[in-house]
Amino acid sequence: MMRIFILGALLWAGAVQADVSVKTVTSPGGLSAWVLEEPAIPFTALNIMFSGGAALDPPDKRGAAYMMTGLLDEGAGDLDSQAFASAREALSASFSFDVSDDTLSISVRILSENRAEALALLKTALIKPRFDAEAVERVRQQVLSILASNAQDPTDTAQRVWAEQAFGDHAYGASYQGTESSITALTRSDLLAAHQNLLVRDAVSISAVGDITAEELGPILDDLLGDLPAGSALETPPLELDIPAGLTVVDMPTPQSVAIFGHRGIDRADPDFFAAFILNTILGGNGIESRLTAEVREKRGLTYGISTVLLTKDRANVMLGQVASANDRIGAAIEVIRDEWSKLARDGVTAEELQAAQTYLTGAYPLRFDGNSQIARILVGMQRQGLGLDYINTRNARINAVTLSEINRVAARLLQPEALNFVVVGQPTGLKEE
Q: Which CATH superfamily does the domain covering 246-426 fall into?
């Protein structure tokens, strides 16, 4: 399943203040990391991101990575699930495991006084997960419950159908959580295979923020991750993106309809990306009153909220939006969305809109670095996307460097009203499938 309203870690992230120095570290064993030393509070946040995620599941094993990730803290080494949880609580440590189509992420929060013991416990979870039968069945039932709930959720259903249409038979076109049949059929061997495929040393990006020095971090990383198998991450299969234009209606008895809409997007490495980023903010981004918010919500009262996002995945880039409206008003909302998409592609933005968006994006930038864990997530995302440390200091300048003529050229290039694909879930009136 797509998580369409979560951008990559960098774009909505804040900037490190100018007097803060992020250091690069290479461990004796060759592991690279970024560290931001902040000894004021005896606490450290560690973020570990492995490239290669649920999209690497075999077609008939969809959900293996998701289920495996949910079992990493359900017993390891000599500790069963209950004993592992008790040990973690006794150390006041927090381990969070998450998987997406393209990555597996681990967020860690530990106190300095318990650092060695907490990291030893985490290492056991990473190197020696138990996948006990009882824990496997418990997590399997949890996943099946989530899938059953998702099937009744109009937003989740709209996202799923849009992904199926946009990505076809590619792994992106199926839920990373799997299906009832695939989850039911998963074996312990399948979970072990997912673990072996995803947790490899040469596919990892690492950041640490807090009460830890660069000198301390290197040996810690070798001890924590050195026993993982070497080798690069398996690559997500290529994808020829061919999103069909039109409108699909999925019947679901709900008082309002949910629409997911979008078309092809833009690659993060494209020279026009910053202009496209500002353009999306003006069209439907959060934080300021966008055109779609003004036209669909404020002027016509057709929705409580509407937004768009540039989604960049390893093998696909799309521009997506979401809106919910009463069944008898969703058609009007879609008409306005198409009109505004066309106007912006044809006429571009105004100088006032560009300046307002630049002021908002650069002003909000420093505010995003609001805690060690958040900073660690941002830094590891920057590493994975190959941005380099200079991005912290150059991002705002690159936002401000976008000119009116440049953004309007990109608007004509990026926005394709005739290519929009709408998936509407509910019982809309007056809408016909296209």
A: Metalloenzyme, LuxS/M16 peptidase-like (3.30.830.10)
Nearest to 48 by CA among 91, 7, 92, 103: 103
Given CATH 3.40.980.10, say whether it is the number of domain 22-225. Answer: no
* Separation of alpha carbons 23 and 325, rounded Å: 48
Q: Where are the beta strands (DSSP E) in 189-240?
A: 204-210
Residue 292 tokens read as 């779609």
What 3-state class would DSSP assign to 114? helix
Q: Where in the chain is the domain with CATH 3.30.830.10?
A: 22-225, 246-426
pTM metric for this prediction? 0.91
pLDDT in tens, the chain (434 residues): 333 332 333 333 333 443 458 999 999 999 999 999 999 999 999 999 999 899 999 999 999 999 999 999 999 999 999 999 999 999 999 999 999 999 999 999 999 999 999 999 999 999 999 999 999 999 999 999 999 999 999 999 999 999 999 999 999 999 999 999 999 999 999 999 999 999 999 889 999 999 999 999 999 999 999 999 987 767 888 899 999 999 999 999 999 999 999 999 999 999 999 999 999 999 999 767 899 999 999 999 999 999 999 999 999 999 999 999 999 999 999 999 999 999 999 999 999 999 999 999 998 877 667 789 999 999 999 999 989 888 888 999 999 999 999 999 999 999 999 999 999 999 999 898 88
Angle at 123 between CA 7 and CA 61, to 5 degrees: 60
Name every residue whose Cβ is closer than 8 Å to that of residue 201 and which is 6 or more positions away in sequence. 31, 225, 226, 228, 229, 230, 231
Q: Which two three-digit tokens encode residue 390?
A: 């200079």
Residue with tokens 């849009």: 162
- Tell which residue, 426, 425, 423, 431, has the closest CA to residue 255: 426
Phi-psi region of 234 (alpha: psi -120 to 50; beta: other; left: phi over 0): beta
Report the alpha-carbon distance of residue 74 to residue 125 in Å, rounded. 8
Residues 6+ apart with CB under 8 A from 216: none
Provide CB contacts within 8 A for 421, sequence distance 6+.
Answer: 162, 165, 166, 243, 244, 245, 246, 247, 248, 261, 262, 263
Q: Please give the Cα distance from 61 to 290 (Å, whole number).
A: 41
Q: How far is CA 202 from CA 17, 65, 230, in A?
A: 31, 18, 6
94-99 and 103-111 as β-strands: parallel, antiparallel, unpaired?
antiparallel
